[in-house]
Amino acid sequence: MPSACDACGATGKPLAKVSLGHDFFGRTYDRLTPSSDRSPAWYCPPCSDEKRMQLDHRAIGEAVRALAGGGASPLAEPGERERAAARLEEIAARLKAGGFCGKLLGVADVEALRDELARAGAGAA
Ligand SMILES: [Zn+2]
User: Residue ranges per domain, the chain?
Assistant: First the structure.
């Protein structure tokens, strides 16, 4: 059991592992998931939240790029673009509200992806 948060380095806080069961689209994480996600890291409470937001941001980003490239994407399912957009808005609002170390995910990254998602959806029915 480590004594410091793997993201912000805080000590003396309760640390927890972020469970990686399913991603934002309900898909099980596979073995191709980057090793940083397979080796469990320990996070303090705000960093655990930030890590979950980072993982959702990444899953949505991959889906947006797949959609933009004309490939199969979970965002092609009815309602999923709206759900992803709402989640990005929620993440941006929470990051702006503060309390996170910001080492895992920045507001600018979230807003850039939100715009990318809007553009990727613009041409679809
Ligand atoms: Zn932390």
Answer: 45-122
